[in-house]
Amino acid sequence: MNKPNSIQEEINSSLQSGNACCHFLQNILCSGLLPKNINIKIYRTVILRVVLCGCETWSVTLREERRLRVFGNRVLRRVFGIKRDELTGEWKKLHNEELNDLYCSPNIVRRIKWRRMRRAGHVERMGERRCVYRVLLGKIEGKRQLGRPRRGWENNIKIELWERDVGCVDRIELALDRDSWREFVNAVMNLRVP
Fold it and tell me: Which of 135, 73, 80, 81 is nearest to 109 (CA)?
């Protein structure tokens, strides 16, 4: 049963598209003929673009963040392959920490946060009269369902502001100054996510 206002279906569809793209490029990604940096560029420019299409509007929960990180790590394991243990001489898969050391670019969760924060700045500067502003930041009329409200898009923005110790600053004023907002968005990109 699908919950209302859940983006789980959209994330499933994106991950399926990413898996299909990865399967299509499997021979290239696993090939030892191409240098690793070319394979990483293919991962960033082709596979990540397919998976992250429309992620600016996602309200991602911790479970979905984990699924996205698992997908990213699985593709990176294909790119980097297996390695031989120096002590035992056995072949083994790379651990997540080793993947993070080898892949120095931001992981998939940080890219989502970065894109969402860029979009939030654009939306804040649009004003209340624009349709996009009303869709992303508007309030729904009527009664709310019982239970705790779901974490929405605006709540994710507030959480990311608090993570960077900017929560006390008015988000709208910060977004109106493009240079300070750009610095903030770049700080979100450099935020270390486990």
Answer: 73
Name the pTM for this structure: 0.79
In this structure, are residues 93 and 174 in contact, taking their beta carbons and an 8 Å threshold? no
- Rounded Cα gap, residues 40 and 75, in angstroms: 10
Length of the chain: 194
What pLDDT, in 10s, does the model give residues 11-63? 999 999 999 999 999 888 887 788 888 989 999 999 999 999 989 888 888 89
Asked whether the predicted pLDDT for residue 104 surpasses 70, the reply is yes
Structure tokens at 104: 């120095």
Residue with tokens 């009664």: 143
Separation of alpha carbons 71 and 52, rounded Å: 12
108-126 vs 178-189: helix axis angle to the nearest 10?
A: 160
Please, are residues 67 and 14 in contact by the beta-carbon 8 Å criterion? no
Residue 1, pLDDT score: 43
Q: Taking the domains of the chain in order of start, what are their residue ranges?
A: 8-105, 112-140+149-189
d(CA 194, CA 118): 22
Q: Residue 5: its pLDDT value, please? A: 54
Q: How remote is the C-alpha of 105 from its chain's centroid?
A: 13
Rg (CA), the chain: 19
